[in-house]
Each structure stands twice: as C-alpha cells, then as structure tokens.
Records
---
Amino acid sequence: MPVISMFYGIIVQMFVLDTDRHHAPHIHVRYAEFNASVAIDSGELLAGQLPARQLRLVHAWIEIHREELVADWTLAVSGTQPYKIEPLR
C-alpha cells in the first residue's frame, strides 16, 4: 500500500489493483485514528471519516493535484506502482 503523499499529519495512499470495493478512482487517507476513502473526481467521502479540518485539507490537495492523481490511478489499476505527489504546503 504505497504512500503517495504526506502533509500536516495526513497520510495519503493509493492501493495497487484497488477496484473491488470502490469502483470510482479514489485515495485512502489516514490521520491519527481516522481512516477514509475519498473520491478523486468529486472529493466525496466514500467510506470512513476524517475530522472536518483534515478533510478540507485533503479536498484542497486533491484540487491542486487532480491530474496527477488520475494518472496515478491509471497506473495503480494496471498493477503499476503510483508516483509520489507533492504535499500540500
């Protein structure tokens, strides 16, 4: 489960070949004891939960890096390791 970015205590991962549970392109986010899956295209919370502040930071990061995330998703579903993406600064 590769980590593609980390910022402000938030860990963003994208699993390789991860289309079983959520068919939409998505990322997995961890923050403290919280875990969530977030859609890349809409920022919708698909599963789990995050504190409101951290979810807003994730939404901002997705907005900035959406094209890179879509490219990483394409790699991941084909079984290729996704690339790292710059953190939110």
Note: The chain has a mean pLDDT of 93.
---
Amino acid sequence: MKKVLIANRGEIAIRVIRACRELGIKSVAIHSTADRDSLHCKLADESVCIGPAESSKSYLSIPAIMSAAEVAGVDAIHPGYGFLSESAEFAAVCRQYGITFIGPTPEQIKILGNKVEARALARKAGVPLLPGSNGAITDDAQAIAAAKEIGFPLIIKAAAGGGGRGMKVVLSEADLPKQLSLARSEALSGFGDDTVYMERFLTNPRHIEIQLMGDQHGNLVYLGERDCTTQRRKQKLIEESPSPVLKEAERQKVGERALELARLVNYQSLGTAEFLYENGNFYFMEVNTRIQVEHPVTEEVMGIDLVKEQIKIAQGERLTLTQSQIKSSGHAMEVRINAEDPVSFAPWPGKITGYHEPGGIGVRVDSMIYAGYTVPSNYDSMLAKLIVKGRDRDECIQRMKRSLREFKVEGIRTNIPFYLELFQDERFLRSEITINWLEDVYLKGRKKS
C-alpha cells in the first residue's frame, strides 16, 4: 500500500493521515468547498476538492470520491467513521475499481449493517437478545401482534440505521401505529430504507461495547470494553475503559460472545459489538463495521494503535497478538468537544479567534481546529476529542477536570463548560448512571436550579 485516500474530514481524517505517515504511506485528503481551509487538507500529502458543501454532493458522493481516487492514483481508501464508512455499496465499488477498502468486506458490512440480519446472527451465535420481532415489521397488524408477545414498553428501530434516527419508544398499543409510521418515515429519510423492527425497551440500562479486531487469516480478538453510558438524545458524550461497573468474569463473558458472533462471518478489520447491560445481564444491540469515534480510549488502555492495525489488516498482514497476550492497563476517558452552546446545545459555528490545547502526562487531544479556522455550519459540530489516562479511574477523573480547565476555544461557544459542571456531580463521579440519566435526571434538575 503506497497511497491512501481518506474519504472523510475533520479529526478522523487527521487521525488516519498520522497513521499512514508512521507506516510510510502517502495520504490524499478530499474536501468540499466549505472545507478548503480544514486542517486535514493541510496535513495530507495531497488534497482534492470533490464538490460543494452539501454532503450529498461531496462526502457522500461515491462517483466524486472515486474520481478523486483515480486522479490521485491511490491504491486504497480509508472511510473513517460516518459518511460512507458502513456503505456496502461503497466497499463493493472500491473492489470493482481494484482499490483496497480499509474495512471489512462488502458482504460483511451488508449482513452486519442490517440490524434485523445481525439479530438473527446473534441468535445463532448464542448471544443474548432482548425479546423482539422475528424480522422486519411492515404494517400495523404485524406490529400489534408482535407487541403482544414482546410486551410494553417497546422500542421501534431502523434496521439500517443508528444515532437515534428511526427510533421510537412505545408505551402502549394505542400509540403503536403512529410511532411505527414516524419511525419508518425517519428511517427512509435518514437511511433510504424504511425497514424497522421492534424489541423490548429497557428503562435503565448501561451501554457497553466490545472492540473487535480480525485479520484475513481467521484470527480474531477482542480488546476489552468501553462504557458509553453518558448519552444525550442517543448520542454518546463521554466514553471510558474499562467500565467501572463490570466484574472481570462479566467482561470476559461478553467479549467471548462478541467473538462468536464475529466468527460466524469470518470478520475482517475493526468492528464494535454493542450491548445494553442491566441487572447483570447483557443484551445485543448491533455491530458497527468501522472505526468508532471513541476508539482512543481503547488505544490508551491497550497500548495499540487501532488505525495502524486496521491498515495492516487491509494489507493482508496477520494479527501479531493472541487473546491471551492482550492486557488492559490503567483507566482512560474521552469527552467530545463540540461547537455548541453549553446550555441549549444549539450548534455554534463561526471563527475561532484563539485556541489552546491542554497537555501534560496522560493527556491527548485529537483535534481538527486551529486559531483562525472558521467552523462551517454544514457538518457535525464535533471539533475535537479530549482523551486522558490515569493509573485508576480517580486519577483519570482528576486529570480530565484539570485538562478541561486548560482547554481554551475562543470566538465560538463549546460544551467545555457543560463538562466542567458535569464532572462535579457525585452521581456521575460514582458512575451511578444509566443511558437515560443525563436527560431524565441531570439536565431536568439543571433546568430547575
């Protein structure tokens, strides 16, 4: 592999550029007209404009990206996360062009990316599942019949989706037809596919995910877990590893279950199996067939560069570690720094007039910004990720608090003040939370005060 095109933008594009450089591989950045001055364009060996600001005409345009790949003469494409990273069609087009797609095969993306098919695989692998519909739900009568077996509350989910879109909680049969229609409409709009399914809704679970890594020679390992319970509107805000609530036997059990699922499809590349955890039980949710936003916390506790490993796997190299050799050390946390109002969470694009990153031992910043950069309004509001590591969770929290105070982004608003406030809450610090705690308890209490 001599030259890699990064089919993405922002901090993940920079992350891939750095990994390529350490491997002696040239990198090609793509950008829309809105991203002409983005840092990833400045750091890559080459950059190519692929279209206007609209994602559909640039970062989501397979013809535009493949044209750039042909012009630049690349032999591989890294999709990052989001955009086309879980597009089986994109991976298949790369194969047709004779370009290596740095990720799993189109067939693996297709079967695991569809949550209905992934649930069927999980059932075959013996992975615990919540009671749910046997396949897709297509009409009201089918939904009502399935609901009688599942029970209320239940949740409707988009088979091809994620990030909270096409997801509706239903408390009673009377509300089911309306919510089914809304979920299917959102799924069609967001993913081009209105297929939905239903499952039992857990009211107070935690969110636990397992990092998977497999090569093209049948070797598979899991790299511990990440706890992603701190969420707002189904979007993760803070991730940490290891989970502060799991016992060693529990993490080993869920890790081995995730491996069984991955083995059924001979999984290659990085991937993440996601679970809900409540009252000592795990329930499978989905598999993400890409690098995750929160991958740095795993890198910090495992001492492994996941992006470099992903590239090596795509080159046909074997894993160099067996499961027994993988050991976690210390505790790591990540917070997502967004361009948004810290109270209303409304997006806040604009020009950054001053910028200072925190530093010191155990502090890492994966960022896409610099002083003088204008944050566009066209894309996701995430600017940077602050990742810290300590010998244990207490030291990690203290280091995070110190680093947040040092982190300065001037000219726009960010959610840094929100994190500084949250890291004072005793319930959060003791990790006495669930995925609904931030919205249903903390933010409601914040409004009252």
Note: DSSP finds 15 helices and 20 strands in the chain.
